[in-house]
Design brief:
heterodimer; A: 333 residues; 35% helix; B: 513 residues; two-stranded antiparallel sheet; 2 strands
Chain lengths: 333, 513
Amino acid sequence: MKKVYIFLSLIILISVAFSADLTIYAYDSFVSYGLSAKVIPAFEKMYNCTVKVVTSGDAADVLSKLIFEKKHPRADIILGIDQSLLPKAQEEGVLIPYKPPTISNIKNKDLIFDKDFYVTPYDYSAIAIIYDSTKVKNPPKRLHDFSEEGSIGEFERSFIIEDPRTSSTGMMFFQYIYSIYGEDCITFWDNFKENILTVTKGWDEAFSLFSQGEAPFMVSYATDPAYFYYTKKETKYKVLQLENGFPVQIEGAGIVKGTEHLELARKFIDFILTKKFQENIPLTQWMYPVTNVPLPECYKYAAKINKIVNLDNVPPKKMEYWLKKWENVILEY
Amino acid sequence: MGKRNFGILNPAIVFIIAFLIVPVVWVFILYPPVFSMDLSLKKILVFSFEQSFLSTILSFVLGFLSGYLVSKTNMAFKSFFLSLPTISFILPGLSLVMAMVVLFGKNGIFHINLLYSIRAIIFAHVLYNFPIFMKFTADGFQTIQSSIEEDFDLLSSNKLQKITYLYIPMLLPYIISAAAMVFIYCFTSFSIVLLLGGGKYATLEVHIYMYLKRFMDFNKASGMILLQFFVLAAFTFLLFRFKSETEKISGEYKIKKYKFPLWGYFLMVFLALFIFIPLFTVLVVGFIDFDSGKFTLKYMKELFSSSYNPAIGTSISRSILNSVIYAGLTAIITTVISLLSVKNGKKISSILISTMAITPISIAFGYLLLQNNFFYINKYILLPLIYSVLSLPIAFNSILRGYESISPSNLESAALDGANAFQTLIFVELPLMARSIATAMIFSFSIAISEVGATLLLYDEGKYSNISVALVRFISSRKLGEARALGSLLMMITFGIFFAVSFLQKKFGEISD
């Protein structure tokens, strides 16, 4: 018995220290889509250092982790903070501001969504509704076309959307609907729900079902047609061009408050706006770079969004209230 | 084992306190629970109860009938059936959903109106869980002595009476154990409920996730965790209280066998269509090119083509090896702890089973906080520990049944021959419990190899990736072909495991008989 307790005590005591020069917290796809492997070795060589990339689900997971560790931060840099996550990051005070000298490389100053420079943007893309043009011959031009009377039969069970409670993409689409309809958004959802085939936990499951032809519409990204062309020479998937426009998601990086490697962390923020980092974004992240680097040919298939919807009118603190309202409409019981 | 009695210091209890209670209580200390009952939460609770209840009842019907055939007849493919619970634990939900889409989806082979409804949720839950009932029922039938059954046959030839007055009462402890387990699995189901239910349904786990990730309101997340714990703990407590009152029979005896009945053939056809074809589909989809519809090995080759796969941050071989290491360590830890704790089995069985009321995400949340406040634990230690916490109730129950089946006369004979406690353990108890030990190890191994929720929350570097993580990351990297191939590979590993188990069980079974 004594041995058991010794064994258990040993397990408790064993710990492993982080040993890299710079620790970056990132969402899974920073590694899984290949950007990490393309840019991190270059940074390591440039500054003769070691970088450890720690991934954790999507960007919301990463910020959660950072907040957990607020008192004893293990990371130096966080990647993936977008407009919807920035208020929480600021409220929790987990970042410190830094304005990189390379900020002038950003082609469109509207992309600098944090004017206090807690977060520096590095890529962006629009959330959009994509569709299979072989199945949808006359794509609607207005969001309202999906929710008005008479549209229900035509588009019944034809949408795959992501759950705003569990998915960043789903949450952004939810905020987009709120920004268009305001407090009437619940009426939209009440009318629209018959068009929903299913709601998935994350974007990946939705994409899996959409790729298998389960539904003609999916909430995804405006660069998807470029992806389909690049990987399969497939051009049937297109982006709905709605008069309402779509919101743009801008992803940024920030320096973690409490970092012990401030100089190197600053150099990394400078680095994300350099050509080496930016030119690798389009074919790995399937997002647009924020600086003027040439785009691959397949990006001519990526949709141009004719109107950008600003999500500034969406009150982050009221989202819980509206999500509950959404649940009451969507849930059957 | 015969002389060990640790009381409150029972190793299983100490293990659970150290590695389950401490992290979860830590969550409540750091983030005191906040409750807010509203209409959507009520809807979620009502739905969760209803679908769990229906899924449990239907799993019971299929499981009971299959358990009868497996145990009371000399049916073909008995080993295959007995090993089905392994598949229930290993088969990832996403692989099953992909197979169901191939079979029943819009472009499916059998286009029936099944997916994206409550029927689809219950279908998937029954597919997953009926083998648990079958296994428990089959074990229960082993305890009905042929002499009792023959006496009953003399008194009454009515089959319904026999089921009502002999089988059900004798099997009740087993049925209740299985029911508790299945109910908890269905109540805490997450992705399957969202995805197959067409978004119209959700479980409490979705809310926990929402408060953890979306709002980062850890106090409300903590409140949901506590609410879920109370709901499930109350349920398991009631069931196991009932179980302990009804549990009178233990041991393994010579049992009466019957001719394979006519209804058995209908059941086999039903199972073949709705259970085995989906499972078989998971096995083969990795070898189909969905663009051309032809057989292909390209996805399987791509899986192993490089020493570093960016989608998972390491090689697939490393992920498989990690899975085997985590699962192997889990099997060893749970078996050793169960063996050390089995003496007070009945008393602690209820405590252990009620730990199933705490879900993997809640436990992982606790470990995240603990690691931040105290020490960072290497994943090769942390993950097997968490998997052990999750699988201990099942492993323990299996070993407990083996322990209870040892006849006191065997121990007395050993004592008369002058064997000490250690000799009794090595030469009498362990061989007699070999089958239970093998079952316990396999269940622990299976749970560990397929766990996703806690793993995804805790793993942070590619080098710690296992098969479940790799599967999720292939899907999220749009590599559906590789994901299907990995699902097929996992099914092959599963089949390999349970053929090995069947062989071992047969071998050990002969010893214990």
